[in-house]
């Protein structure tokens, strides 16, 4: 057994049923504790485009949400959905959609906690995330942090640091170079150099530049992709009704579809649907709070509501539209999987979009290019935050250089092993974050009643924001 097979086996184990049950259970629990915060989606959408004047923070709440959404809308929003349909059947689409709805409560809870326990560094910049929640929530009166809280904080930050190089950089650049080579015949190293070079210029501009780019890029690429998919659905209009029936039937009954090429039992549909939905919106993984904690907001509830719209846009809208395009196209061409020699989610996505003359392939190419590029930009900030926490500010430039190098290597074909290894780290990163969410859910539910349900959403939080030492977390002295 070679090392690649070993990594694949570990990957399958850590992202097996126990992890799916844990994440889905967290979604249900936080939904209960927040009294179904999903019903406040209209308010959340309104707040996402409303400036919170006078609030402390480094970036607008919309900028934070756009950057977080840009980081989430990676290749999983297209290829991941195709993988769910291919492996779990059409029924996986329904479970993916429901996971996105339930995941809004988890995203709300983790961002609320990050906002409540955020800290300020020596330059006055806001920082937050699971590592700071563990430290600030359980800090003793004398300023020291219990070893177990420090351990959980470091665990999350180390796993996040490892994950970012692969999922945020290498894999995304690989997707862009593959699409460019297949459609234009451009050499991968040329595309990788352009992507990484331009990305570095944006990243070096700091959070302000990153958020400004994402504020403009996310709405444009989201609307363009949805309009393109809408055109495909119009072309497949005769099969829309059949697609919905197939999605609901396969979600609750075992049956084959598309000439028997795709079929699965209820459990498999549930597993793949939940897994793809969880991967697409990242609710529970702990990445979004790293940027959301920097937002301008009077109280934690405001930004938590804004961040809650992420799973809605990503999974409930983008991923569901993609899934409907795939299922309706397969209904229109039942033998497409056999005829095109489909072997994985990527080849299925290519085959499906290619069935629409002239516009299908460009829509797919535009979606992957924009989604992957925005992920590279957004995840760079995540890495900067955890690097600053673990090693101090002097290590940040070194991290940025390594991040860009990993992106280039991924673009020229060194991304497969990185994907599997960082996928494992992704699961290990989620564990301390989920535990933090479960421990904070009661507090969040209680304060949500005051801010959201009792109508005090504009009340200012009058709590001290602690200053973060500049030294590495490993070198900090006791207070």
Automatic annotation (TrEMBL):
Query: How does the entry describe its membrane topology?
Result: Multi-pass membrane protein
In which family does this protein belong, per the annotation? Belongs to the alanine or glycine:cation symporter (AGCS) (TC 2.A.25) family.
Which NCBIfam families does the record match to this protein? agcS (TIGR00835)
The residue ranges crossing the membrane are 12-32, 62-86, 92-113, 147-169, 189-210, 217-240, 252-272, 312-336, 356-382, 394-412, 424-444
Question: Which GO terms label this protein's molecular function in UniProt?
Answer: amino acid:sodium symporter activity
Tell me where on the tree of life, at the top rank, the source sits: Bacteria
Please identify the protein, giving its name as recorded: Alanine:cation symporter family protein
Q: Name one GO cellular component term.
A: plasma membrane
Q: What is its main location?
A: membrane
* UniProtKB keywords: Cell membrane, Membrane, Symport, Transmembrane, Transmembrane helix, Transport
Q: Where in the cell is it found?
A: Cell membrane
